[in-house]
Sequence to fold (310 residues):
Amino acid sequence: MRRPVLASLGLALLAMVYALTGVSAASVRASRTAQRAGFPVTVHSADGFVRILSRPTRILSLSASATQMLYAIGAGREVVGVDKYSTWPSNAPRTKFTGYETSAEDYLPLRPDLVLLAFSTGTLVAQLEKLHIPTLLLPPATSLAGVQAQLGEIGMATGHRVAAASTWSSLERDLAAEVSAAGAHVRGQSYYVELDPTLYSATSKTVVGAVFAGFGLRDIADAASRASAYPQLSAEYLVHANPDWVFLADTVCCAQDPARFAARPGFSHLRAVELHHVIDVPDSLASEWGPHSLEGLVALLGRVLATGSG
Fold:
């Protein structure tokens, strides 16, 4: 029966001490809560290391992929705003922000205590630092390992480490299951993924390319890549490569579809066209690297490759 009494006396003494030093008992409890949640933490950002003193409760995400990650790991309740390009989930608190704002003060009405950015423009990160707002810079991942790393960083920064690890494990299981369902017969087949009608594509050195590679497909854009992982091909190059599959990721932005693709000069005799292997892909599945987009792309490829058509 002594412990509750001693605990009460201890708290009372602490309250007296902190009252004399100007620190409230509520601050002490908040500090203890933060420590129990694993804070403070030091998280790796693309521009260095970021120290986060306590668990964020007002997160501003200016990256569609980071928004997906936050909600996938259960941090959605702490999100107070997302950029205008974040489309998932549909109930996220969307703003007019783009992540390319020139003044960090634009964000202050939301009172963020953590900001996630995909790109560093101008002095925005430095401005946020001066305002003592922790900022994580999470540029486009170039591999599945990069996606895993960013999930882990966001999990650590928000106090959702276990959920972040679980989300990644689920993605790995989904990919393995869909690869198995697609079968070994697709391994070694070639493909072209189109990002816009001017024939910009993505190589296997991108996240979307890594997913295709997981199915054993061969990217025809790799041979054309020099400095960029997103090379622009020519019609002649595409006809010569004659891919087994074509994936159109410009259906939303540019109203492309298999019929329009086949009607382009010289494309009607492509192997993919003759085999009806020209597949519509929602644009976001090829441009975002969040869990929702990856799950959608993996499921689509699994279905298409297993059945042999869209």
In short: The mean pLDDT is 89.
